[in-house]
Amino acid sequence: MYFFFYKTDNQHLAISYSPNKVYEGQSVTLCCCSERLTKSMALWRGLDTLPLSSKNDTKVNCQKFMNFSRNDSVVYRCFVVNKSGIFNDEVQIEVSYPPDIPDQNIIFTENDASRTLQCLAHGVPSNYTYGQWKHQSNFGKHIRYLNSCADGRVILPEITNKNKRYQDSGIYICTASNGVIASTGNSFQNGKIFVTANGPPIFLDKIEKKQYGDPRKIFSLAFVVYTKSEIEHYTVKPENTHDVPATIQMTSLNSTLIFHGTEISVEAIEVVLNFKLLSYDNSHTYSVTLCNGHGNNSFVVEIKPLEVGEIVTLGSKVAIVIILVISAMCVPVAVAT
């Protein structure tokens, strides 16, 4: 068995590279130089089991790399053998590259009053400058700008009304730079955070209600709901009496809603509740409640029955809807087929 002892006196040996500052995508030349003629000279990369190159009876051994990448940021070593023994020298090459900012998915609940997002920049060097955050809808419409903290965080302005915290949903775009220009020519790089701000169902009042209270038929009450989670329960409760049996139909559609002062398109649900009216003669108010996994909201509708034989024209005796937020118990959803 043989043991090799490497001498650390490298006054006659040096390993170097050019250019002095290495950026990702550049060509790099690595050279090992000895003042004396060596029997052999080898260049090694990291802990590789085979040398990059090896030469005999030489003073210089150089290796050129094309398209140097961040994965090439390792220690490079030069080993030489001469009459005095085995010598080595090493150098660490650090590759500079612009920050990568991975996408994130963040979920807030209606109880999260304090909401903070972090721009996760990873680059070399690791000193970053952060730009303004952009908040846009899931359909790409601009909502607002937000100032970044020095460490890349953004603290969302607090919304005291829990029923309004859904407005923080959307796509947040952060920007960061470490001074390294990307191959695209951009100094600042972007990252996206997809935020879902859960909360109770929100009733949208921009759908035209064309249902009429004909007591001889099943009444169909249609309205539009914005919710980020599934509708789990619903109730239809006439005033001063028990819940009435009802079936539910739900259809996805796009609607509009105000987010922080900007009207945007949102994915919503058209809900149709089918139930029988209580009376042929008198109008009644019905409390309609929808529940998802994050709470419930309700509205009250007054339905006036039509007299038998009355001719209904568009715009006469329509259902009158008054939106109220109340608390109520819910029953499991049984979706009509």
From TrEMBL:
<dbReference type="InterPro" id="IPR003599">
    <property type="entry name" value="Ig_sub"/>
</dbReference>
<dbReference type="InterPro" id="IPR007110">
    <property type="entry name" value="Ig-like_dom"/>
</dbReference>
<dbReference type="InterPro" id="IPR051275">
    <property type="entry name" value="Cell_adhesion_signaling"/>
</dbReference>
<dbReference type="InterPro" id="IPR013783">
    <property type="entry name" value="Ig-like_fold"/>
</dbReference>
<dbReference type="GO" id="GO:0050839">
    <property type="term" value="F:cell adhesion molecule binding"/>
</dbReference>
<dbReference type="InterPro" id="IPR036179">
    <property type="entry name" value="Ig-like_dom_sf"/>
</dbReference>
<keyword id="KW-0393">Immunoglobulin domain</keyword>
<keyword id="KW-0472">Membrane</keyword>
<keyword id="KW-1015">Disulfide bond</keyword>
<dbReference type="GO" id="GO:0005886">
    <property type="term" value="C:plasma membrane"/>
</dbReference>
<feature type="domain" description="Ig-like">
    <location>
        <begin position="99"/>
        <end position="194"/>
    </location>
</feature>
<dbReference type="GO" id="GO:0005911">
    <property type="term" value="C:cell-cell junction"/>
</dbReference>
<keyword id="KW-0325">Glycoprotein</keyword>
<protein>
    <recommendedName>
        <fullName>Ig-like domain-containing protein</fullName>
    </recommendedName>
</protein>
<dbReference type="GO" id="GO:0098609">
    <property type="term" value="P:cell-cell adhesion"/>
</dbReference>
